[in-house]
Structure formats: structure tokens, C-alpha cells
Write a structure and sequence with these properties.
Chain lengths: 287, 425
């Protein structure tokens, strides 16, 4: 019997491989990014320690502030649509309908594609000159010269819609699992009391799904805040930086402008924001 | 003991023979090149590499095809990890950043062996300038193209517009007049396929309009932006009004990058686009039927003489290369007159060497004459490390009048302020 508060030696060995992997793939890059954010490259490829100068530059960088605002809009828009679509799809697919299994598989399809394929497909669909969306509008006699990705007011909305399509199945799967865990007896009791469909949803389904939806929302925020591929491929941050998000800016600074230290500082800010949400997530799981 | 002596003798012979065997093994060099990804450049490169390996049988080229959009990211990542390819074909505007990062090998020693200044004088000045930093050579020009006006002769004929001269440029008012005449939205046809994307290739095309109005992005000493000066604002106004006021450009303009513009002219939805000469092939691939209808002319100008931005690639060797001598042999081979002529014959890539461009084989091609007429009018990129970031600013600000987010005046005043702040940083 091991002493209280001391793990047996075997347990330490069981954890060691995972600890080593975490150290190599997580801790080393993290420390490296943190250190790089305090440096600046000099001509010739050398490095100079600049302290917090990269961080101090961030509040006066209009492009960074704009990207931060765009990231917030993109994340909030995506998460709200994911939750709405995911919940509605889950409610529909939880009903005893003919071909339910087939529809569940179909609903998962968007999630199965890589984001690059999704981005490329939506970019083509929404192309104002050659895209099927405008072509369909034209055939229906509706206004068809809409610049979905070329208009500063529409571009972000278009990217969010594409992301909503790609990401809602995750919330749907979680909600479906949550719905199946709700005791039938609650619905039966409500039916006896004469509760209608809306009341059953509002007073039974939603309260029971609250935890699942909160977890899904937090995970979705974490994923979408650092989502790169869709924006990069669909709009490349344009037009006029209207869809530039922080991670695409980090990429540009590191690989196009060769401002690696500054890019690392921006990445650290993203890390800190996401650390808050990760903290909430971990805390919720402990409950 | 006899068997032991026998084994010792065999080991001795093997040890002695090992260096000989190693010497006979070919040296491998890694080549990263975006022109190994698609035809016709893939075929052109394969043919040249086969020729090279025939001439240098002890050197094998390990090809690493990498898409254009991925080369810089992949190369920078590998170079930072200390494992870069030996040779990379670099877009001209990458070289400055790579040099500044310390990734590139100084080629002065090899250039001296190849003939020094006499060897360098073979190349046109502009591409050579982007391979030269702090007086040292870091890149040898592979090809150096010019941007021209590609137009559809049949649409011109239908609209009663005379064909353009392949050497003498038209003026901006003449260009607008033609664009208006050939625009017919009822037929789904517009005058000009303006590239309004913020990508670097679209920004380079926009620079042509600045150059042909006698201005630029920066002053000659690269210390200050001139985008807020009247000539630059006039250029942006004219360029953006082609879309916003005169409606001679089809919708979705900010989505139109180089390839989308080529699609527009291939589908005969526009009568004219701006393009590097060799991209004629890419238009024809999209619609072979359009080939006999296409013709080339210099870009419109306000100066009587048409100027073109630099559009070139350079061969660079990594500082971390373990085979720099073999890598140089490859670069030297690819920069020879015969290699550049052969490559042009297959790909239409304009040679960066004067003797290759002026050779009868190249001049016989539709692209040869117009390219030769413009080759001395190339304005190089500023060889400063901030250029990529400046390109991003220009791309963002040139879009604003197109989408109604700012007037040309406000947009370029803002651009100048941002560029100046960047230069002071």
C-alpha cells in the first residue's frame, strides 16, 4: 500500500511517455515562441533581445487591432451559427423519422472534408463571375451581380456562413448525445401536465443540454479563434483587410514580412486569450 | 592463422576501396522549384535537367516540386531548421528577405570564376539588381518577363477598333476609349479584366499604372513614400474609375487575381488584360480556341514609352548547402544562353539574358518582339527588406476605392502614412 499523497513508482512510469511527448510537442515550442516574442531579427539572420518592445508595438498597430476585431466577429458569428444549426439539426435527427441513420451520416459530411477543400469549394460557389450561387440567382431573375467575397460588408459574412456549414456537425453530434441522455420520464410527465412542444423544449430539453452546449461553445471558440485555412483560402484577408484575422496576420508577419519576433508576440496574445477559455473549459469539466 | 590473414587482407582492401567507391557515387543536389509543378514549365525543366545530368554525370538533381504559394513558407521553414534545399528558384521579391535572414550563399567566388562582371553583364540590369545585395551577388536571373496588354483581336474588330502596335504604346485616354467601345454588358463582355485582388501578383500589375504615369511607390533612395503625391493619386483614380465610374470592368473585381483575369480573357468575357508575356500559354490552355484571336501590345502609358515592373525569378543557393560547388554548376548551366533559349521555346518564359532574348529563335515567337522592346524599360523592385510589407499595404489601400471604402486621395494618403511609418520602424 503506497503512502497517502505518494503515487506508486509504476504510476510515474505509466505517465512518463505522455509527459515526454507533451514536453516535446507542447512545452518546447511554447517556451520557444515566448522567448522569440522577446527578440527581433537583425540583418544577416542574427537575433537581438528587445524585451517587451514587440508587445508594446501591438496596441498602436492598426492592422493588428483590426485583425483582433475581425477575429472576434468571425469567432462569435461562427460559434452562434454552429450552436443554432447544430441544435436544430440534432433536434430534427433525434425524431423517429424514416431514414434517420442516413440523414445523420449526410449531416456529418461537411465535417468530414478538410478545411482546404471546404474553403476552395465555397470560394468557387461564391465567385461573383463564375460561381453557381450568382448563376442560380440570375436564372431565377434575382439580382445576380453580388460580390460575396469582394464586398467589404459581405466578405466576412460569407466566410462565417461557409464556416457555419463546415462546423455545425460537431455541435450536432454533441447535442444528439445529450438529447439521448435526457430521461424519457421527464417528457412523459410534461405531456401528462399538458405541456406543448415549445414548453417541453424550453423547460426540459434546453436545461438538460445546457452543459453540453456550454462545452461545445467553449471548444468552438478555441478552435475558431485560431482558424486559419478558411480565411486564407477564401479571401486571403481581403478585400481591404476586411477579413484579416490574427492568425493570418501572424502568418504574414512570420513568413512574408520576416518579422518573426513580432509574429511571435501576436501568437502569444492569441495563446493568452485561448488560455482563458481553456481554463473555463477545464474548470467546467471538474464540476 | 592463414584464414585470419585472409580476412585482414579483405578488410584492408575494402577500406582502401571505400573512398574510390564513394568518389564514383554521384553527388545529389536538392532543387526546390515551383516550375516543376505544372506544364509547360515542368516539361521545360525536365528537359534542361536531363541535359545537365548528361553533361555532369556525377551530379544528380533531386527535384522538389513545390507550388508557387508554398515555396517561400517551405523554404523559410527548412532554412530555419538548417535543412534547406541546395538550389531554389526564387521570385525576385523574396530574395531580399532571404538575404536579410542570412539564408543565401554569397556567389561572388563563383561569379568571378565564371568571368566576373563580363558574366554578369549578360543579364538585363533589373533582374540582376534584385540578386545583388551590399555589393554581393546572391541570385542569378533565370527569366525576366515583362507585363503587356493581351487583347482579343476579334472583339476589337467587331467593335471597329484598329489593332494595336506591338511596340508603340497607346495613351491612357486611348485605352479608356477602346475599353468603352468594346464593353457590352448585354453580351456579358467588358473592356478590361482589372486585377483588383490584394495578392502580390495583382499589386505588381497595379505598379505598371504608377510607372506609366511617371511615379512609383517610393522615392529613388527608398526612404519615403510618394503615394500621396498627385501623380500616384491620379494613377489610382484612373485605375479604380475604370471599374467604379466607367464600368468597363466586370464585377467581383477584388476577387480577380492573375489567374482569374486569364480565365476572363480565355472565356472572351473581357477584351483586354494585363499579363506577363509568358502567361499567354496559360490563357491558351484554358481555351485553345482563343489562341488565334490573341495579340500583344505594350501597356498604355502617359509617357510615350511604356514601362513595366520587374517580374523575374532568380536561382539562389542556400548558405547551408553541403554541395555548393555542384549547386553552382547547376545554376551556371541554367543561366547559359542555350538553356534560356531552350526553356523559352518550351515555356515562353522570357530569357533574362540579352543574347538569349535577341536570338532569332526567341524573336520568332509572338512574345519575343514585344518583350525585347520593353526589356530595357523594366523598373526593379526596391531592394529593401520591407518591400513585402509595403506590397501588402499597397494591395490593401488600392482596393479601398474599388470597394467604396475610401476615395483614391484618402486611400493613398493613408498608404503613404503607413509606408513611411514602416520605413522609420
Amino acid at each position: 500500500m503506497p503512502k497517502r499523497g505518494h503515487a506508486p513508482a509504476a504510476v510515474v512510469w505509466y505517465f512518463l511517455p505522455a509527459a515526454l511527448v507533451s514536453f516535446v510537442v507542447f512545452l518546447i515550442p511554447l517556451v520557444s515562441v515566448l522567448w522569440t516574442s522577446l527578440e527581433r531579427q537583425t540583418p544577416g539572420g542574427g537575433w537581438e533581445f528587445v524585451g517587451l518592445r514587440n508587445f508594446l508595438e501591438l496596441p498602436s498597430d492598426p492592422l493588428f487591432l483590426k485583425a483582433l476585431g475581425n477575429t472576434t466577429v468571425f469567432t462569435l458569428g461562427s460559434v452562434v451559427l454552429h450552436l443554432l444549426l447544430g441544435l436544430v439539426a440534432a433536434l430534427l435527427l433525434n425524431e423517429q423519422i424514416y431514414g434517420r441513420r442516413m440523414f445523420r451520416v449526410i449531416a456529418l459530411i461537411p465535417w468530414m472534408f478538410s478545411s482546404v477543400v471546404v474553403a476552395g469549394t465555397w470560394r468557387w460557389l461564391l465567385n461573383s463571375q463564375f460561381g453557381p450561387v450568382n448563376d442560380t440567382l440570375r436564372r431565377l431573375g434575382l439580382p445576380s451581380s453580388i460580390e460575396w467575397l469582394g464586398n467589404v460588408s459581405l466578405a466576412m459574412l460569407s466566410v462565417i456562413v461557409a464556416n457555419a456549414w463546415r462546423g455545425f456537425p460537431f455541435v450536432m453530434v454533441m447535442c444528439l448525445a445529450g438529447l439521448q441522455a435526457i430521461p424519457r420520464v421527464q417528457y412523459e410527465a410534461a405531456a401528462v401536465d399538458g405541456a406543448g412542444a415549445w414548453h417541453r423544449f424550453w423547460f426540459i430539453t434546453l436545461p438538460n443540454l445546457r452543459f453540453v452546449l456550454t462545452i461545445a461553445a467553449i471548444l468552438d471558440v478555441i478552435w475558431n479563434f485560431k482558424y486559419f485555412d478558411l480565411v486564407m483560402i477564401m479571401t486571403n484577408g481581403g478585400p481591404a483587410s476586411s477579413t484579416e484575422v490574427v492568425v493570418t496576420l501572424v502568418f504574414r508577419n512570420a513568413f512574408e514580412f520576416f518579422r518573426v519576433g513580432y509574429a511571435a508576440a501576436q501568437a502569444v496574445i492569441v495563446f493568452l486569450i485561448l488560455a482563458v477559455f481553456s481554463g473555463i473549459y477545464v474548470r467546467l469539466l471538474r464540476v | 592463422m592463414r584464414w585470419a590473414r585472409g580476412i585482414a587482407a579483405i578488410i584492408f582492401l575494402v577500406v582502401l576501396a571505400a573512398p574510390v567507391a564513394r568518389a564514383a557515387e554521384p553527388v545529389h543536389i536538392r532543387l526546390m522549384d515551383f516550375q516543376l509543378t505544372v506544364e509547360p514549365t515542368l516539361g521545360g525543366m525536365k528537359a534542361l535537367i536531363a541535359e545537365f545530368e548528361k553533361e555532369f554525370p556525377n551530379i544528380k538533381v533531386d527535384q522538389e516540386p513545390t507550388s508557387l504559394g508554398q515555396v517561400s513558407v517551405r523554404y523559410v521553414t527548412q532554412a530555419r531548421a538548417g535543412q534547406p534545399p541546395d538550389v531554389v528558384r526564387a521570385q525576385d521579391y523574396w530574395v531580399g528577405g532571404w538575404y536579410q535572414q542570412g539564408f543565401l550563399l554569397n556567389l561572388d567566388k563563383y561569379v568571378k570564376e565564371a568571368g566576373g562582371q563580363k558574366y554578369l553583364d549578360n543579364f538585363y540590369k533589373a533582374p540582376m539588381a534584385t540578386g545583388t545585395y551590399s555589393g554581393g551577388v546572391y541570385g542569378i536571373p533565370a527569366w525576366s518577363t515583362v507585363t503587356v496588354l493581351v487583347y482579343n483581336k476579334e472583339i476589337f474588330k467587331d467593335a471597329g477598333v484598329p489593332m494595336l502596335d506591338p511596340v508603340k504604346p497607346i495613351t491612357w485616354p486611348q485605352f479608356l476609349d477602346i475599353a468603352k467601345k468594346v464593353t457590352d454588358p448585354a453580351k456579358g463582355r467588358w473592356g478590361y479584366g482589372l486585377t483588383g485582388s490584394s495578392q502580390a501578383s495583382a499589386v505588381v500589375r497595379f505598379l505598371t499604372w504608377l510607372f506609366n504615369n511617371g511615379t512609383n511607390v517610393l522615392t529613388a533612395d527608398y526612404t519615403k513614400s510618394v503615394l500621396d503625391e498627385p501623380k500616384a493619386i491620379e494613377s489610382l483614380t484612373y485605375w479604380s474609375e475604370l471599374y467604379t465610374k466607367y464600368k468597363v470592368v466586370p464585377g467581383g473585381v477584388t476577387e480577380v487575381e492573375a489567374d482569374a483575369a486569364r480565365t476572363l480573357i480565355a472565356q472572351e468575357r473581357v477584351a483586354m488584360i494585363q499579363s506577363p508575356v509568358q502567361a499567354l500559354n496559360e490563357i491558351i490552355v484554358k481555351n485553345p480556341k482563343v489562341e488565334p484571336k490573341l495579340a500583344l501590345a505594350p501597356m498604355p502609358t502617359q509617357l510615350g514609352k511604356s514601362y513595366t515592373p520587374q517580374f523575374s525569378t532568380l536561382w539562389t543557393i542556400s548558405k547551408a548547402s553541403k554541395q555548393p560547388d555542384a549547386a553552382w554548376k547547376f545554376v551556371e548551366f541554367m543561366s547559359r544562353k542555350e538553356s534560356q533559349v531552350n526553356y523559352q521555346n518550351i515555356t515562353r518564359m522570357t530569357p533574362a539574358r540579352r543574347d538569349a532574348l535577341l536570338s532569332p529563335e526567341v524573336q520568332a515567337d509572338i512574345t519575343g518582339k514585344v518583350a525585347a522592346g520593353l526589356a530595357d524599360n523594366i523598373i526593379p523592385f526596391p531592394p529593401i527588406p520591407q518591400w513585402s510589407e509595403i506590397t501588402q499595404i499597397v494591395g490593401e489601400q488600392m482596393q479601398k476605392p474599388l470597394v467604396g471604402a475610401a476615395s483614391p486621395v484618402d486611400s493613398f494618403k493613408e498608404a503613404a502614412r503607413r509606408v513611411n511609418a514602416l520605413l522609420k520602424r
